[in-house]
Amino acid sequence: MDCRDYHRQFIDFINDELGFNETSALVSHVMHCEECSSDLKNEYLMITGMRKLDRDPVPKNIPTYEEKIKMMSKKCRREKLFRILSVLFIVASTVISVYFFIKGLVL
Fold first, then answer.
1. Is residue 19 part of a domain?
2. Which residues contact 94 (CB under 8 A, 6 or more apart)?
3. Structural domain of residue 56, as residue ranges?
4. pLDDT value at 58 more than 60
5. Between 59 and 7, whose confidence is greater?
6. Helices (H) and strands (E) in the chain — how many of each?
């Protein structure tokens, strides 16, 4: 993907509407691409600022841009770890099942 592709995902990212793979790729990209990081930050500040103006009283749970990137980066790492552990659990369960199946045939 190039920068234009990531730019198309900015609104969905800000609205938490991207899936794991898209979020992970976008966060990784903006952490290494200063231009996209700056563009996303400007768009994030504009959209969250407009949301704050539309609400009365101002919600306190809207994270700053830096907090959002950090939070989504952590979320992606946790999701990745969960997926790895899930696969390991399935593999271990399969190996144990096969072992007991073969052991049962031998008896």
1. yes
2. none
3. 3-76
4. no
5. 7
6. 5, 0
